[in-house]
Amino acid sequence: MQTGKFLYGGDYNPEQWLDRPDILEQDLDLMQQAHVNVVSLGIFSWTVLEPEEGVYHLDWLAEIIDKLHARGIQTILATPSATRPAWMAHKYPEVRRVRADRVRELYNRRHNYCYTSPIYREKVRAINEKLAQRFGDHPAVILWHISNEMGGECHCPLCQEEFRRWLQNRYGSLAALNKAWNTRFWSHDYSDWAQIESPAPQGENAIQGLTLDWKRFVSSRHVDFFRFERDVVRQFAPNARFTTNMMYRFHDIDYYEMAKEVDVVSWDSYPTWHKPTETVEETALDTALMHDLYYSLKNKPFILMESTPSFTNWQPISKQKKPGIAMLSALQVIAHGSDSVCYFQWRASRGAEEKLHGAVVGHDGRTDARPFREAEEIGRTLPKLTQSLGVHRIKQAAIVHDWNNMWAIEGSCGPRNAGMGYWKELALHYNGLARAGITVDFVNQESSLEGYGLLVLPMVYLLQEDFAQKVCRFAENGGTVVVTYWSGVVDETDLCRLGDTPYGLTQLLGLRRTEIDSMYDGELRRCVMVSQPDKTATHASILCEVAALNETDPAEPLMVYDEDYFAGCPALTVHSYGKGQAYYMASRFEPEFYNEFYETACRKAGLASCKPEHLAPGVLATLRGELLFLQNCGDKPATLPDGGELAVYGTAVYQTGETLQRIL
Ligand code: GAL
């Protein structure tokens, strides 16, 4: 999708204003004033597009697309499958989802269609065909937005049948399935495929292999639905390009699988800025982690499909972005590899669920309101950074994030049912690396590790044999590996590994796990560096693993626990392996530990930091191509490398090279 400019705009819902042509006209003027060059249309338009079964009204949409186009505004056109008309849900109950407790939902809300229902697929096919026939080769339509925020699960009889077919395909025989799930436990062996049901609160929920496979199945249904919708459009629009908008820390879909199907990854970012439990820098890092994950899915620039210009209305407390935060977050997403900044939403709706959600144009329609002024300024600023457009990022460090592993950790019982804090663990490593000025990608267990210097395995509980071997080869060839506690515990069907663990990594790490103690929230164990035994280095929390060093070729302990019965046992070790080395972290430590650790580990691994020296804490440095972005997420103005001052929430952009040249 070569547009030559950063896409700038957002979700536009003109179907809510068809009785107000004056407002639709005003939108065109205001969009131009705000430098908008793209809108997403039709996401929730099905009742207007097909008010009665088989009766299609597309002229209104064509008129709007044409009028926008005449003003230089392009369209990302959605298929309307995320919300279906009431007539359909009433006439064809099977299109409504069945919940895990086996109750079929009444017509309600959105994002709740049955993805298996043949009738629903037929209805989606019909509307998508109409849209594709009419707009497939429209020069303004640059991208197709399939559905919206796909997710959730359906437990209807059609889905149960499909699940059984999926299992038959995967396992071939009931004997193989029973073994893979260890159903002999509590005498739950299946003797007929028809006995297998999806997990339910009042049904089976103790066979964790079943739960894990159900998650895989649900994910694959969404990917299949995406493929189905895309291919219908493609029949009439062979050159069309496709995306679907992804979400924050999303569980239901293995986005690596979805990414294989889309042309460009897109996602919706709604950070909870200014919450009392987090600094602005921490919120910025949490957001950056997601941007980097979505960049990594295809290893190429992505699209920010939605963000609020001001505030949401669904967070526990929906706070306004303070002045400067809208610009900071817009430039941050560009720095991390996006080729767009888009909002939900252009104009605030008058009624129902989202009437009090922020918008570029509010109910007062004023252009001197802060969201509009800030949006106008951002629209004016983006063209100054065009040299970053389409630019890929350098490869330095990678963190393993694998949906199968995350599902398995969450589905397991013990050792901490009070929460394993998987995302928290990812964030600790990510933040340490990002603060050190290192570009971070994410990989799963299928990814190539080519080009990376450092690889982190945070809580890779479900570790595939072939991936463990790949990790060892990575170190052998000179890479640096960091493995944490709760890694290498089970196989792909959540069966515990037999023998020494972390499975497949004991030679690499030079040690084996012997025990694991779970900690209450707030319970801490002091740790000291071996080189400085009198000074507390950090504290361990959540899970404390006890490890025994290998008898031959053991790891070197760098830090040890200094309390409890495991005092003196290694908490952090390093071990040389081939041309590289491997660190092992036996527990979760305090956040500051990771800053120091990664600064040193990256230097030793030969990774060059993009962060100029002597920057104040809270200033984040991000490199995209030749542009260096410095963003002040602290609470005081900061001094820039050229001696200038960077205001709180300010961004300075430099052209890198022999010297730094400021361009923004
Ligand atoms: C997104 C959704 C939009 C809108 C927005 C509000 O998750 O895709 O349609 O609801 O949230 O923040």
TrEMBL record:
Record-listed substrate binding positions: 110, 148, 314
Record: residues binding Zn(2+): 114, 154, 156, 159
Residues of the Beta-galactosidase trimerisation domain: 396-607
Domain Glycoside hydrolase family 42 N-terminal: residue ranges: 11-384
One BP term from GO: carbohydrate metabolic process
Gene3D superfamilies: 3.40.50.880, Glycosidases
This protein's GO CC annotations: beta-galactosidase complex
Highest taxon, organism lineage: Bacteria
Keyword set, alphabetical order: Glycosidase, Hydrolase, Metal-binding, Zinc
An annotated Gene Ontology molecular function: metal ion binding
Catalytic residues identified in the record: 149 (proton donor), 306 (nucleophile)
The protein's Enzyme Commission number: 3.2.1.23
Top EC category: hydrolase
Entries under Pfam families matching the protein: Glyco_hydro_42 (PF02449), Glyco_hydro_42M (PF08532)
Keyword Ribonucleoprotein: no
Reactions it catalyzes: Hydrolysis of terminal non-reducing beta-D-galactose residues in beta-D-galactosides
PANTHER family documented for this protein: BETA-GALACTOSIDASE GANA (PTHR36447)
Family, as annotated: Belongs to the glycosyl hydrolase 42 family.
Protein name listed in UniProt: Beta-galactosidase
The species this protein was found in: Candidatus Allofournierella pullistercoris
